């Protein structure tokens, strides 16, 4: 074979290889050119007929042609096995595609953290029914049927027979419904309860969702005072929000505590000087107060011997204040938008 013939052989092979559309065609070409009886081997076999000085030159050209054909076969093989960018052949050494990993919801993280902080102070986390009797949700808390204060808790009623003693069935509108249940469970103070649970109210707007979470603290013992309440809330605020945050109590009214307060925490963005996020340096957290004697009596505890404090705050609200995030619409917490949830 002349040098020119070998060049032609090589060019012919390369163009045929590039024109293949199936692995089968490609394999046939490989056999045809590089197989034992293939054209490259034939050309090599003919080398011996050449004069000695030509042998090494032509031998090198044959070898170059062989390498070029091998490379072309390899490249075309890859190309044919890749369809629409998807590799259809299986390479077990390639690292696998990892499934997406999720994480806990940010409200779950907040609940974990809240329970740990109160755990440190000796509070025991409890849970009480989400579907509750009117008695525990309202009546035992000093809000008899048709009391106007109930309007604030836009309650979902369960359409079922009412209980002769406990009244209608409701979706619990606040975790305060656990107060009398806890008194009945423990029977004899001391009580240090933290009840974290889902609550339901008929409300949905930028700052309300129909299902949300609250955490309710209840302490009942001898000689409990507002100082204990303030100290507990201060401790919580410093642990949860950071060492520089402060708590203040504002007089308020709840049926089940007397006196009652609303609790504010100093704004973490402006440090109390007033900014867009807060009202004059303070953010409203939730309610608190000294347990009303009637509530103790309803829980079977003698108010002449024991007293206590309670507080109840929204988990979502409290969490948002910690993160310093201003969410325009609280409903985003629950509409399963991964773009939002992935950030926490
Ligand atoms: N249960 C009240 C609410 O949902 C919050 C609350 C206020 C809880 C005062 C308390 C309390 O324990 O003492 O708005």
Mean pLDDT: 91
* Fold-level CATH name of the largest domain: BirA Bifunctional Protein, domain 2
Order of helices and strands: HHHHEEHEEHEEHEEHEEEHEHH
CATH class descriptor of the largest domain: Alpha Beta
**Largest sheet, spatial ordering of strands:** 3-7-8-12-11-10-9
Ends distance: 72 Å
Strand percentage lies at 15-25%
Description of the molecule:
With 344 residues, the chain is an alpha+beta fold. The chain is 38% helix and 23% strand. A hairpin with a 2-residue loop joins strand 9 and strand 10. The protein has eleven helices and twelve strands. The mean pLDDT is 91. The protein has two domains: 3-87; 106-341, Bira Bifunctional Protein, Domain 2 (BirA Bifunctional Protein, domain 2, 2-Layer Sandwich). The chain has helices at 3-19, 23-34, 39-46, 52-81, 106-120, 134-137, 178-186, 226-241, 293-298, 315-323, 338-341; strands at residues 82-83, 86-87, 124-126, 131-133, 157-163, 167-171, 191-200, 211-221, 247-254, 257-266, 282-291, 307-314.
Short description:
The protein has 344 residues and is an alpha+beta fold. Helix content is 38%, strand content 23%.
């Amino acid at each position: 074979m002349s040098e020119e013939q070998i060049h032609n052989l090589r060019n012919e092979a390369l163009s045929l290889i590039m024109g293949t559309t199936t692995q089968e065609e490609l394999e046939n070409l490989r056999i045809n050119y590089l197989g034992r009886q293939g054209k490259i081997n034939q050309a090599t076999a003919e080398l011996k007929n050449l004069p000695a000085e030509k042998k090494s030159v032509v031998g090198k050209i044959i070898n170059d042609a062989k390498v070029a054909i091998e490379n072309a076969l390899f490249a075309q093989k890859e190309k044919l096995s890749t369809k629409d960018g998807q590799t259809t052949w299986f390479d077990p050494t390639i690292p696998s595609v990892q499934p997406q990993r999720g994480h806990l919801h940010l409200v779950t993280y907040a609940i974990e953290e809240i329970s740990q902080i109160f755990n440190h102070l000796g509070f025991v986390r409890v849970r009480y029914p989400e579907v509750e009797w009117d008695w525990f949700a309202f009546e035992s808390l000093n809000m008899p049927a048709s009391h106007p204060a109930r309007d604030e808790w836009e309650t979902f009623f369960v359409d079922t027979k009412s209980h002769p003693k406990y009244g209608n069935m409701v979706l619990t509108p606040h975790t305060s419904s656990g107060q009398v249940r806890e008194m009945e469970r423990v029977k004899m103070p001391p009580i240090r309860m933290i009840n974290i649970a889902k609550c339901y109210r008929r409300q949905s707007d930028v700052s309300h969702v129909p299902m949300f979470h609250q955490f309710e603290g209840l302490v009942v013992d001898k000689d409990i005072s507002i100082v204990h309440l303030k100290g507990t809330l201060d401790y919580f605020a410093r642990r949860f929000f950071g060492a520089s945050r402060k708590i203040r109590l504002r007089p308020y009214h709840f049926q089940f505590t007397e006196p009652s307060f609303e609790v504010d925490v100093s704004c973490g963005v402006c440090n109390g000087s007033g900014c867009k996020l807060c009202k004059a340096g303070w953010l409203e957290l939730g309610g608190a107060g000294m347990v009303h004697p009637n509530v103790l009596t309803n829980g079977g505890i003698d108010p002449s011997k024991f007293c206590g404090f309670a507080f109840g705050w929204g988990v979502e609200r409290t969490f948002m204040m910690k993160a310093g995030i201003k969410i325009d619409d609280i409903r985003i917490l629950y509409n399963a938008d991964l773009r939002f949830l992935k950030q926490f």
